[in-house]
Design brief:
Layout: E1 30-31, E2 40-41, H1 52-64, E3 70-76, H2 82-94, E4 99-104, H3 115-127, H4 132-137, H5 139-142, H6 152-170, E5 176-181, H7 188-199, E6 207-213, H8 220-229, E7 235-239, H9 244-254, H10 261-271, H11 275-288, H12 290-296, H13 301-310, H14 314-324, E8 329-331, H15 332-337, H16 343-355, E9 359-363, E10 366-369, H17 372-380, H18 384-401, H19 406-416, H20 422-438, H21 442-459, H22 464-481
Helix pairs in contact: 1-2, 7-8, 9-10, 9-11, 11-12, 13-17, 14-16, 18-19, 19-20, 20-21, 21-22
Length: about 475
Amino acid sequence: MVSGALPPSGALLPLGGSTASGDLMASGGLMTSGDPTQEVPVSRATTLIGRADETATLLTAAQRADGRLAVALVSGDPGEGKTALTEHVRELLAAQGWRAAWGRCPESGGAPAGWPWTQMLRTLAASSPPDEETARVLAPLLADSYVPVGDQAAAKLMLHQAVVGYLAAATAETPWLLVLDDVHRADEETLALLCHLATDRDATGRVLLVVTYRHNEVGDLLADALARLARVGPDRIELTGLAPEAVADLVRGAVSAPIDEDTVRAIVDRTAGNPFYVLETARVLAAEGAHAAVSEVPVGVRDVIRRHLTGLPTAAQEVLKQACVLGRDIDVDVLLAQGGTDEDTVLDAVESALLTGLLVEPDAGQLRFTHALVRDTLYEDLSQLRRARMHARTAEAIEAIRPRDVSALAHHYLASASRATAAKATHYARLAALDAEIHFAYREAAQLWRGAIVAFERSGATDDAARKELEAGVERSLAQSGDHSQG
């Protein structure tokens, strides 16, 4: 396993915490409900259940990736097991000498354009460093800082062609699985590079590129990208609910105590076979027994997550509310710097969330909600006023720790939506828009320019020249994107 390239093993612990890896089972423990007499032992299993055909499709695609890039699209609702499937395939391919890199589209705004490609290419570069000239052209994705020069349209084409050439060289000897995760949230440049790579006839090497997304969250940008990808005939896998027999196997594999047929049938009916819902129900079954699992657990996973959250100390719940504003991925330093809670309380809360499986630790100083739905439930339960105030505190923390992270600063200051922070929102939205233009993300740049205008008006500023610059930024970005309908 390449360090930093793959989901941590803790992300595959659905009974100690639920993940998008809904199909995989890993080490468990005892699920308690406060009454020790109701504990049910949770067994250990390491088998992907109910996805044999999908696994075979991806392995067949990998066999074709011999000198020519192969593309596979994996779609499904949240919790259907997209990540679990790709991780399972990674394990099988690793036994054949493959290596792997993951690029995740962030849950919330603030990441630089093309960030998933930066994640993957840095993993490859650690194993196979590019030559000096290639590294220079790849600087917008590989370098920590980058100063653009010359024609940006030409630079974008050169960058995309450099990625094609670098992948061919880096994978000539060792095949690589590249996973572009959650592209329903992808920015413009991430999708543009994906399409260029998939459709370029010169794209050689030994690469299987797996693209995952939620099929019910396909926006215009992704729809356009999927239409372009259709020309190369990618393998398509649409994950739906598991068959009743697979649900029964999953539940019985999760809970080692005997389970009667009526309980299994009720779980099948209530979950529609969604692996995440099944495993969340199994958690309740293990903790509280069959009656609670089939009668008290709400149909929606949101209510299941709320049940988990209420089992935490009040202080831990408050810290998780602060954390959710950061997105699914959490920088501990920023969380500690948000203010309002002392360090010991934060660390105690984090440990509680880790023990209950709501969080995992992918790396030192980093936390991650085990499932996007956990983060979304917390975030959407906040009032708009509290959400805005917390975004403001987050922005101040990032400003103190990472003052050059203009994308994140723009996102949080704009979300704070107050007159007190409006000037800073304008300032950082302007800088982030310019940065987005540099990275060819012109639609994102236009949105940031618009956000800057809204913040400018909220601030009460009267500088006509400054306003004209912001308006010109919108027009310029839309012109570069070719989208004149929003001008």
